[in-house]
Write a structure and sequence with these properties.
- By secondary structure, the protein is mainly beta.
- It has a single domain, classed as Peptide methionine sulfoxide reductase (Metal Binding Protein, Guanine Nucleotide Exchange Factor, Chain A).
- The protein has one helix and nine strands, in the order βββββββββα.
- The protein is globular.
Length: 100
């Protein structure tokens, strides 16, 4: 899923809540689907117990997405890299306007 860049929306694999537009996905080389921004209110951020990372979960259902990293030199509008576990998301190209 790291090299897939079709137009659409990524949603929660569990509850179906929209997470990110495909236009915010980029190839960071980390091996995980990577986004620089989620849809407003879709993501909850909490400090990881290790103190080095920030965990991201779906606000709607609490499902674990992955981690977010800031200021690593990626030239994205947010200077973020949201590494998302591919099993936690689904892609849809149908009904995109319903999510936006």
């Amino acid at each position: 899923m790291t090299s897939f860049f079709a137009d659409g929306v990524y949603t929660c694999a569990g509850c179906g809540t929209p997470l990110s537009k495909s236009t915010t996905k980029f190839n960071s080389g980390c091996g995980w689907p990577t986004f620089y921004e989620g849809l407003p209110g879709a993501i909850t951020r909490t400090a990881d117990p290790d103190g080095r990372r920030t965990r991201i979960t779906f606000t709607s259902c609490g499902g674990h997405l992955g981690h977010v990293f800031k200021s690593e030199g990626f030239k994205t509008p947010t200077y973020e890299r949201q590494c998302v576990n591919s099993i936690s998301i689904k892609f849809t190209s149908e009904g995109i306007s319903a999510f936006l």
